[in-house]
Structures are given as structure tokens and as C-alpha cells.
Amino acid sequence: MVRTFKLEASTSSDEQEDSSSSLTNKLLKTRDALEKLSLANVQVTEGEDELAAFRQQWQRELEATPSPHREPPRQQTKLEPEEPVSDEEKAKQLFLRGVELERSGKLYEAIQHYKRSMQICPDVETRLYESTDHRADTPIEELKVEEVREVEDVDSDDEMIEGEDLVTRLQRILARKGTLCQPEFTTRGGHISWLPYEVVQLVLRWAVSADLDAVTLERISATCRGLYLAAREPDIWRLLCVKTWGIECGVPRGHGFTSWRQMYIDRPRIHLHGCYISKTTYLRHGENSYQDQSYRPWYLVDYYRYLRFFPDGVVLMWTTAEEPASCVGQLKHRAAKPSLGIMPGHYRLVGDKVVIVIKKVSSEKKPAHASNTRFRSRRKETLEHHEQIFHLELELHNVRSRRNWQLSWRHYAVSSRRDQWTQFDLTPNKFPPFAFSRVRAYTAEAHAPLASHTYVHALVHTFPYTYTRTLLHV
């Protein structure tokens, strides 16, 4: 019994030792497994953190550099309400979207956006330009002072050459500067200095026009040095001389002139930018009064003669008692108005003499005479035409510093029948001289440029609109 107990006791102690050792081993294994698991979790967490950081960096780069094909998404908060977009802003967004599409090469889609934006707001491009254009912070007065000083410095540094004329000196200055003209102030639109020299010459020909308005050309030349030289182009003045005196006008040296411009200014010619007016005044006796036979009234009568000349040789003559303010507008166009008494004719300039021939046709109703009274109701009145021919010869004179400002009478005859002429005694009281008066309305518009017959058709198709001198502010 004792041995058995001891054996069992020893057996139980061994079992306890085995169980404790196995438990220890399990605990060790569990600890190792937990350590491995914690290491794996740490590695996974570190990998996820790196991936999240990469994603955040990538998102920031995408937001910093948006794609041209689509706009970056806008972050809107639920608390802040969306502001309504106006029609103008919507049109601007569509227009800018069209600009992006056009830059990327998608022209058809860009046109669609342009159309939609212009349907909403027709002047969307102008509004965009005005909203993005920033004016200079420098006041206009300061700009003007600085630019004037700069110009003065340029002129002061230029040395005068003895015997050099003004045109040659200005050509030398502009050749050194490299530009025809410059804007004095900062402009928001285009400037005439941007145009090529050939286009500037074409603009000047439109300013002169087919009406030979050399006065406007001289006013343009007073603007700046560049336009002064452009207005002195010999080809323009040569065409003016040819249009005035014909193709056989000769050359300037043949008439003792140094240039075409001097020939046009100094040679006798007719002014075309106005009309010549002559005022005649005379006294007329009235009838005696019935109550007082010794009383006899006198009447002071005034009437005017008007002459309007055109470049193509047409002249209009009008004799009326109306004042010039209400009459000169009726002589603007070549189409005469016979109802007002305006008579058309032709003129020719021979030296300092102006020869005018005017034909007037008047109609009178003449009753038809029939021998048989049976058909009296069928008789018709016939028109009898009376023709009158007026032959005038006038001479050009200078009045003080005004060239070709007066036309004096030299010959005046009227023919009412064939080869029967009636000549008038040209006394100063009855036939005072014509004095020139400028009319601005005659040269306010130009329907064709100054050009020879060969280039008129091409120039009219190049500029098929009416050019107004108000654009030049002259």
C-alpha cells in the first residue's frame, strides 16, 4: 500500500511537471505568434500610410494643374447655398470654354460655344475685353509731360544741316526712328500707326476722293510729321494735276514749278469744295400813288447767281432771290432740279479763263388748230420746245492771299434762236464778280478714291463703303 501511494504520488508529480512545461511551451508559442502578428500589422499600417500619402500628393498635383479639357471639381459645402449665375457670367463661361476648345484644335465645338454665348449676350467679347483690360496707374498728365520731354530731347539731339529742306530733314528723322507716327496717349483700340505705308496712302486717297478735296489732305498733313510726309507723296499731287488740267497738263518743270504740289497750288484752277456766289443789287421805281401823285416809291432788289463746278467738267448755274444758306445745299449733287430753275452745263479751263456753255430747254403748251369743228373734242395740245444757250467767259483772280478766289465777267451772250446772239453790256453794277464760299457739306463724304481710270475699279472693290472724314476728325 505504501509503495502504491508513492508511485501514484510520483506519477502525479510527473504529470504536473509535464502539464506545466506544456503550458509554458504554449504560452511561448502564443507570444511568438502575437509578436509576429504585431509585426505584420505594423508593416501593413506603414504600407497603408505610404499609399494614402501618395494618393494625397497625387490629388494635390491634379488640383494644381487642371486639365484643359475639363474644369477641376468645385468643392461645395452643404451649409453654403449655391449663388445663381447671371446670364452675363454664363455667356462669359461659354465664350472662355470656346477659347479653350479652339486652342486645343476642336474648332467645331468652339464655334458651338461661341454661338451659344452670343445668343445669351451679343457683346460678350467686348465685355470680356473690358473686364480684363487694366488701365495704367500713371495719370494722363504725367504721360503727356514725359512724352513731350522725350520728343523734345529727340529733336534737340538732331543736328540741322545747312541747306536742307523740311521734307528731307523729316525723312531723315523718321528713318532713324523707324516708325511713321506714334500715339501720343495710351489707346485701348487700334491706331493708324499700325497700318502699312501703302494702306496709309490708300486712306489719303480716300480722303482726297474723286471730288479732288485737297483741303482735307492739307489738314491731315498738319497732324504729325509722319502724315506730313505721307501727304507730300508726289503720286497723289500728280493725280490731282491730271484730274484738274487733263492728261496733257505737262510736267512741273515745263511750267516753271519744282514739284507737282507747287504746280497744283500756284497754277490757276477752279475751287471744287464750295461754290462761287455773285450778289446783284439794283433799284426799281414803283408806281405813283393815287392820293399823292408827287410820291413815287423806290424798291431795292437783291438776287444771287450761283456757280457750282464738278471735277468731270459739269457746272450748275442758278439765279434766284433766295439767300445762300438755303440754296447751297441744292447744288450738292450733279442732278439738276429744273423745277427750281437750276441749269446744268459744261465748263473748260483754258489758262486763267473759264468758258461755260449752258443749254436751257423750256416747254410751252400750244393748242392745236383744226379746220373741222366736228372733231374739236379730240384735239390735243402740243408741246413747243424753246431752247436757250448761255455762253459765259470768266477770269480767275487772286484776292489778297487767297488764290483763285474770284471770277470776274469777260463775256456773256444768250442765244434764243439759231445763229442769233444777244450780248450784254458787262457793267460792274449789273454783273458783279463771283466770290468763292466754302461749303463743308460738299466734301463730307467720298464715294470713290482719287485714282486714275485704270485703278478706279480695283480700288472701289477694295473699299466698297462710303468713307467719311469724321473718322479722321478734320
Automatic annotation (TrEMBL):
Could you tell me which SUPFAM superfamilies the record lists for this protein?
A: F-box domain (SSF81383)
What PROSITE patterns does the entry give?
TPR
Q: Where are the TPR repeats?
A: 91-124
One Pfam family assigned to this protein is FBO_C
Q: Where is the signal peptide?
A: none
Query: Which GO BP terms apply?
Result: SCF-dependent proteasomal ubiquitin-dependent protein catabolic process
Q: Which UniProt keywords apply?
A: TPR repeat, Ubl conjugation pathway
Cellular component (GO) terms are:
cytoplasm; SCF ubiquitin ligase complex
Q: Which Gene3D superfamilies match?
A: 1.20.1280.50
Where is each F-box protein Hrt3/FBXO9 C-terminal domain found? 258-378
Q: Residue ranges of region Disordered?
A: 1-25, 63-88
Instruction: Supply the PANTHER family for this chain.
Output: F-BOX ONLY PROTEIN 48-RELATED, F-BOX ONLY PROTEIN 9
Q: What is this protein called?
A: F-box only protein 9
Q: What is the organism field in this record?
A: Papilio xuthus
